[in-house]
Amino acid sequence: MSRRKQLYEGKAKVLFEGPEPGTLVQYFKDDATAFNNKKKGVITGKGVLNNRISEYLMMRLEEIGVPTHFVRRLNMREQLVREVEIVPIEVVIRNVAAGSFSQRFGVPEGQPLPRSVVEYYYKNDQLGDPMVSEEHITAFGWATTHDLDDIMAMALRINDFLSGLFLGVGIKLIDFKVEFGRLWNENDEMRIVLADEISPDCCRLWDIKTNEKMDKDRFRRDLGKVEEAYQEVARRLGILPESGPRDLKGPNIMQ
Ligand code: UDP
After folding, report:
1. Which atom in ligand 1 lies closest to the alpha carbon of residue 204?
2. What's the domain range around 15?
3. What is the domain-level CATH number for residue 129?
4. What confidence tens digit (pLDDT) does each residue in 178-211 have?
5. Å from CA of 176 to ligand 1 middle
6. Cα gap 246→52, rounded to integer Å
7. Residue 177 C-alpha to ligand 1 middle, in angstroms?
8. pLDDT tens sequence across 71-96
9. Torsion of CA 187, 192, 197, 198, to 10 degrees
């Protein structure tokens, strides 16, 4: 990891200069933070699992035509991605009330929403990532209405696809956060692509039968067995070898 020039260090990942222009290496750490950095910890093995899980989900999304920054996984903790200009908005998609939504609107955690709800938060640690509307986003110039049309359409498509994918392995996708970036081609045409990561760090995933949490809420709420939960998600997706690296069976479909 030290061979490459470090460009940025975030809470859970480090970005390094990539091997060719227009690429970056995304390194997944075991560090975990919650409540806007007030709670800090280490989840041993998390980086390895998130690297795998995010690779798997981004590849499945590419297959259905959702453009992403993902190029390929390089090793246990690193993946090669395209360099994009990150839109400074966290896009949260919710299917079931939980977390800040339950608190803000007084809806009990676990109550299904009548339709999927998309929310925007301005990415700014100092301000604690305030919730913003399309009006704020366009007025401040963080994205255009056209960008937001693309983002909303992609977010809903990602939600439908991932909801089905997780349901197939006995997991309910309660909510999740995604980030998008701008990617330019050789003719200077821009398109919005899915960036960052999709992993149990930024999703709420509940077991379909028991409602047991299989995501970062185990860390946020001190529920224990955090690494085991991430491992179980990977195992169900068929990307955690059960007895060695050659023993990958593909998703464990639930009947
Ligand atoms: N989320 C995230 N990063 C953030 C805030 C939220 O990945 O900075 C994810 C979180 O894991 C959950 C969803 O977005 O899956 C909705 O989170 P919520 O707004 O309920 O916030 P929280 O309860 O984490 O404060």
Report:
1. 15
2. 4-83+225-245
3. 3.30.470.20
4. 999 999 999 999 999 999 999 999 999 999 999 9
5. 7
6. 15
7. 6
8. 999 999 999 999 999 999 999 999 99
9. -140
Strands 112-122 vs 85-86: parallel, antiparallel or unpaired: unpaired
198 lines ligand 1 (CB under 6 A): no
Q: Can you read off the two tokens belonging to residue 253?
A: 């479909």
Which of 119, 202, 205, 217 gets mutated to test ligand 1 (max ligand atoms within 8 A of its CB)?
A: 202
User: 254 CA to middle of ligand 1, Å?
Assistant: 27
Is residue 213 in a domain?
no
Number of domains in the chain: 2
| Residue found under tokens 């929403």 | 113
The pLDDT mean for the chain works out to 95
Ligand 1 atom 11 nearest Cα: 202
185 and 95, same domain (yes or no): yes
Confirm if 148 and 192 have CB atoms less than 8 A apart: no
Does residue 70 sit in the same domain as residue 117?
no
249 has a pLDDT exceeding 90: no
Same domain for 136 and 44: no
Residue 255 lies in a domain: no
Residue whose tokens read 């975990």: 32
